[in-house]
Design goal:
This protein is 65% helix and 10% strand. With 176 residues, it is mainly α. It has one domain. Strands 2-1-3 form a 3-stranded antiparallel sheet, with helices on one face. A hairpin with a 4-residue loop joins β1 and β2. The protein is elongated. About 6% of the residues have low confidence.
Length: 176
């Protein structure tokens, strides 16, 4: 009887151990998928910020080059790696993101680049809002340009006017 009880207890212990290991493996797999999904869009976001920074410097040539890199990042996104809420928004904005990046990259007229950047910012905002960024992202607004943009820094640096009105605008939302 004692051996039977010991055997049953040993079997229960093994089952609990196996379940715990399996649960930890599943949890690890889910966390890895989350990292992959946010990483899938990270290149798009990084390239958006590079375009914004070039516009702040009023450098049309660099803006064009950074927008070409953004275009490459957009086309490299693997939709099957996105989380479902990211995928839904991605499907709504991908054509417009692509069109705006093309318009900016194929142009060296700052005024036209900045006009396309308005739409690019709106669609990037929709995407970044659902992707839960690891660091705060600031949505900023310039009343003179009647336009928004996104920034990693809280300090306002206006991409629509560059050095002529660098600090025109304010933070209207913090995305966390």
């Amino acid at each position: 009887m004692k051996n039977s009880t010991t055997a049953v207890l040993a079997a229960i212990t093994i089952l609990f151990s196996v379940n715990t290991i399996t649960a930890n493996e599943i949890k690890s797999q889910i966390n890895t998928e989350d990292v992959i999904a946010s990483g899938e869009l990270q290149s798009v976001f990084d390239n958006y910020f590079a375009v914004k920074d070039a516009l702040i410097k009023s450098d049309a040539k660099t803006t064009s080059a950074k927008a070409a890199s953004l275009l490459t990042a957009i086309s490299a996104v693997k939709m099957d790696k996105l989380k479902s809420n990211e995928h839904t928004v991605w499907m709504k904005v991908v054509k417009k993101l692509t069109a705006d990046a093309k318009a900016i990259s194929s142009n060296t007229d700052l005024k036209k680049q900045r006009e396309s950047f308005k739409s690019l910012s709106k669609n990037t905002y929709d995407l970044i809002k659902v992707s839960n960024p690891d660091q705060p992202i600031y949505k900023q607004y310039c009343p003179m340009a009647d336009a928004d943009w996104l920034s990693k820094e809280k300090a306002v640096k206006n991409p629509y006017y560059g050095s002529s009105m660098l600090t025109c605008g304010n933070v209207v939302e913090t995305i966390k």
